[in-house]
């Protein structure tokens, strides 16, 4: 799917909204939020790895990290309860494109915005402007557009991390 062949296959909460224009200030706001989300997700996931390693020592730091993690989970749960939940759909997310099962057909050539939650632990959505490149019934293919260089880099890192994790899970 992507140039590197790495993609995330998952059922994720997702929403589509058609858009005809992408004002630069709004795109900049989305990209900042996306960057924060991807970096926070990486930090949370590296914390899990560090927390496992801290079992052999540094218990005080591990307990502090666990308390911060609990606080983040509670804040995330509070946010989930305040926002309407999105339906989870089958998604294939690549570094430059995405495929998903839409609730209704979407015409090729349309542009819009996808709101996508990558992790139940971090209730912060990615906001991805897309152009629909094809559709077969409700299966939609879209190209990610207007991503900043930083967001593109962090998205690729995230996909690689998930790909590596899936390979490790298969090896077990």
Describe the fold and architecture.
This protein is of the alpha+beta class. It has one domain: Thrombin, subunit H (Beta Barrel). The chain is built from three helices and six strands; from the N terminus they run E-H-H-E-E-E-E-E-H. The protein has a six-stranded antiparallel β-barrel with strand order 1-2-3-6-5-4. A hairpin with a 2-residue loop joins strand 2 and strand 3. Helix 1 packs antiparallel against helix 2 (59-82) and helix 1 runs parallel beside helix 3 (149-171). The longest helix is centred in the N-terminal third of the chain and has 30 residues, at 24-53. The two termini are 26 Å apart.
Stated plainly, the CATH topology is called Thrombin, subunit H
Q: How many domains would you count in the coordinates? A: 1
Biggest β-sheet description: 6 strands, antiparallel, barrel
Bulk shape: globular
Q: Give the beta-strand count.
A: 6
Instruction: Enumerate the spans where pLDDT stays under 50 for 5 or more consecutive residues.
Output: none
CATH superfamily: predicted glycosyltransferase like domains
**Helix-strand category:** alpha+beta
Q: Report the average pLDDT across residues.
A: 85
Quick one: CATH class?
A: Mainly Beta
Adjacency order of strands in the biggest sheet: 1-2-3-6-5-4
Q: Which CATH architecture?
A: Beta Barrel
């Amino acid at each position: 799917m992507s140039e590197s062949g790495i993609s995330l296959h998952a059922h994720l909460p997702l929403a589509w909204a058609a858009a005809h224009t992408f004002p630069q200030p709004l795109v900049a706001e989305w990209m900042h939020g996306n960057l924060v989300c991807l970096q926070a997700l990486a930090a949370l996931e590296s914390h899990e790895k560090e927390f496992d390693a801290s079992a052999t020592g540094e218990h005080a730091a591990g307990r502090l990290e666990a308390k911060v993690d609990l606080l983040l989970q509670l804040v995330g749960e509070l946010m989930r309860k305040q926002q309407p939940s999105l339906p989870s759909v089958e998604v294939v997310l690549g570094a430059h494109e995405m495929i998903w099962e839409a609730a209704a057909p979407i015409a090729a050539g349309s542009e819009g915005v996808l709101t996508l939650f990558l992790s139940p632990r971090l209730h912060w959505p990615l906001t991805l402007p897309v152009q629909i490149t094809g559709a077969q019934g409700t299966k939609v293919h879209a190209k990610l557009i207007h991503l900043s260089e930083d967001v593109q880099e962090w998205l690729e890192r995230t996909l690689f991390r998930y790909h590596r994790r899936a390979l490790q899970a298969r090896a077990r």
